[in-house]
Design brief:
Mean pLDDT: 77
Order of helices and strands: EEHHHH
Radius of gyration: 25 Å
Low-confidence stretches: 1-11
Distance between the termini: 43 Å
Oligomer: single chain
Length: 144
Amino acid sequence: MALSPSLGRPAEAPRPETARPAEQPAADGEAAPAGAEAAQQQAAAEAARRHAAAEEQADAARRPRPRNRAARRPSGRERHDEKITVYVSAEELMDLEHARLVLRGEHGLAVDRGRVVREAISVVLADLEQRGEASILVRRLRGR
């Protein structure tokens, strides 16, 4: 199954009522336009490129990540190609916004909530990598 690289979901196949092979004559017995075959080849090549890109992403996801990532650095302010959606409670969102305002007001750091979240993830994952079982993440998830 080919995945749409930009949307991360299966690519839609053309609808049978709208798809017409290049060699099939057009309505009223007219011949298909000469460029139809080239367009079909171009569409097939594009589909092959999308399929190759999806395969490459799947291979990258299966590769083991290097251990020793304690020197992990957060991404900072830059364009990000990957996205996740995280649902939080109203209280958690207010805490995040409060932290952002404290960073700005008391520490002179004008950052957005996404940057705060990426930094927090980086710190927690580095702690997990370094301390393992004793990490704050493991302890909190186990309820200790």
